[in-house]
Amino acid sequence: MASKLNPRQMKFVEGIDGGKSLVDAYIAAGYKNSKTSYVSASQLLRNPKVIAELDDRLFTRKRTASQRFGGMIDGSTNIYIKILKMDANENPQLLSLQQKVASDVFDRSGMKPKQEVELSGEVSISLIDVLRAGREMKEGA
User: Which of 16, 21, 24, 41 has the fewest CB atoms inside 10 Å of its own CB, making it the most exposed?
Assistant: First the structure.
């Protein structure tokens, strides 16, 4: 698809792909800077060839990221499984360290395992409730 774009369109796509604003990418591509640069850049962005090139680049990025993080997730899963299979009596300090490392790997890959959450808060008990509970315990006994 890249061969169908002219050089300025390709520079515009590269600018957008590199994180530049529409107008900055438009001007960097060699187009004229004017009051209508934003409108012209918007029109260029809607060009089917430009859209196709940006879609191709996005698809390539997603595929690359998926491959990279997929391998990371598989690796962290294997580490985690090994940790779960280890005998804690063998070397508890090593096991603790490996659990922390595996947890960190999962966290970085977006799959941190669930952790226990300690809940805290205020609890209020009225004297009447305590007396009723005591009375009910006496009557039940």
Answer: 21
Candidates 49, 96, 105, 36; CA nearest to 73 is 105
CB 108 within 8 A of CB 114: no
Give residue-wise pLDDT tens across range 61-118.
888 777 776 666 666 667 666 665 666 566 767 667 666 766 766 676 666 555 555 6
Q: Give Cβ neighbours of residue 129 (< 8 Å, ≥ 6 apart).
A: none
Residue 5 is classified by DSSP as S
Q: Model pTM?
A: 0.48
